[in-house]
Amino acid sequence: MVRLFVPVPAPAPAEVVLTGDRRHYLLHVLRLAEGAELEVFDGTGRSFDARVTRVEAEEVHLALGPVRTAPPRRPVSVLQGLPKGDKLELVLQKGTELGAAAFYPVATERSVVKLEPKRAEERTARWTKIVEEAARQCRRSDVPRVHTPQPLLEAARALAPSTALLVLDEEENAVPLGEAFRACAPGAPVALVVGPEGGLAREEVAALVALGARGVTLGSLILRTETAALAALAVMAHLDGELG
């Protein structure tokens, strides 16, 4: 069934009205007409069977069926050091498919990419659309939040106190990701820090450890920054019984 992301207020009304880009997408991309059936998801974990009841010059009206709520899953956040090119878009798209709940693009000492405030706002809007589309395609009813780029330690300090902070770190004292993840309380939030090309500076790792982080490793393979983030998400999804 065709799926469409629509923010639906709570409690859910019997009907929602689409305007602007969403109206255009439904009529001219999905090519739906009056009477067509589809699934609406609201990005918070709710979904609805829906039907196009009326098409007007500026609006499309959708009737909503009973709400379905996705089962809760462990919230996993990714603090990704800003990489070059379009690598972050890959992490956002595939990370959404692998169950990430939030993404924090972070500036680190070795980040080559530097974003001015206006550019950062524009990129965040684009990144948000990428995760919305990825959620639609992989049939998630929730949409991960993409935070505005910020310094690494600022993002780490903003995490909820109950969050287990794991840092991909290839130093000798790092423990396997699986071991550290199994030690986390069932269902408790986890945040994963991934450095950019060149990794994290030792001072950054030390500052994160001072905040309560634990260094972890994916093993002996040397992975690119975007591969490391996705491999780690896959490991955690597997250990939580959601993959494999």
UniProtKB/TrEMBL annotation:
Q: Which residue numbers delimit the Ribosomal RNA small subunit methyltransferase E PUA-like domain?
A: 18-62
Give yes or no: UniProt keyword DNA damage: no
Cellular localization per UniProt:
Cytoplasm
Domain of life of the source: Bacteria
Q: Which Pfam families does the entry link to?
A: Methyltrans_RNA, PUA_4
Main localization is: cytoplasm
Q: What is its EC number?
A: 2.1.1.193
Reactions catalysed according to its record: uridine(1498) in 16S rRNA + S-adenosyl-L-methionine = N(3)-methyluridine(1498) in 16S rRNA + S-adenosyl-L-homocysteine + H(+)
The protein's name in its UniProt record: Ribosomal RNA small subunit methyltransferase E
Write down the species.
Hyalangium minutum
